[in-house]
Amino acid sequence: QLQLAESGGGLVQPGGSLRLSCAASGFTLGDWPIGWFRQAPGKEREGVSCISTGGASTNYADSVKGRFTISRDNAKNTVYLQMNSLKPEDTAIYYCTAVFLGQTSCVPNRAFGNWGQGTQVTVSS
To answer: Mind listing the pLDDT tens digit of every residue in the chain (125 residues)?
Structure first.
């Protein structure tokens, strides 16, 4: 069974930081490019960032570039999203999944079926 679990979300003030984790079970995460997506209530899911299998290549949405950093520790079977200088518009549920890594895009490949539960990030004063 191929499964991913998101964690690390929470409530933070504007300008604060959070680190999200995407942990794999039942397979080797290092075999897959992984991306983070987010969805706010009433809005469509959007790509945030993604990373190649070895971590050498990364993509970021313009809205988070310079503030977020994606990384991975394949020995720990985990992908991370470090979020700094958080803004209220970053408030959303954040999901991770396998992706196809394009030049500037992150396209879900649906290898793991349905989206998971995600982790809630709330940025508010």
So the answer is: 678 999 999 999 999 999 999 999 888 999 999 999 999 999 999 999 999 999 999 999 999 999 999 999 999 999 999 999 999 999 999 999 999 999 999 999 888 778 889 999 999 99
The neighbour count for residue 83, using CB atoms within 10 Å, is 27
Report the 10 Å Cβ neighbour count for 95: 22
Distance of alpha carbon 4 from the chain centroid: 11
124 residue type, one letter: S
List Cβ neighbours of 30 (8 Å cut-off, separation of 6 or more). 53, 54, 72, 74, 77
| Cα(106)–Cα(104) distance, integer angstroms | 7
**Which H or E element spans position 60?**
strand 58-60
* Dist CA 47 CA 105 (whole Å): 8
Q: Which two tokens stand for residue 19?
A: 């680190």
Q: In degrees to the nearest 10, what's the CA dihedral of 1, 106, 13, 73?
A: 50
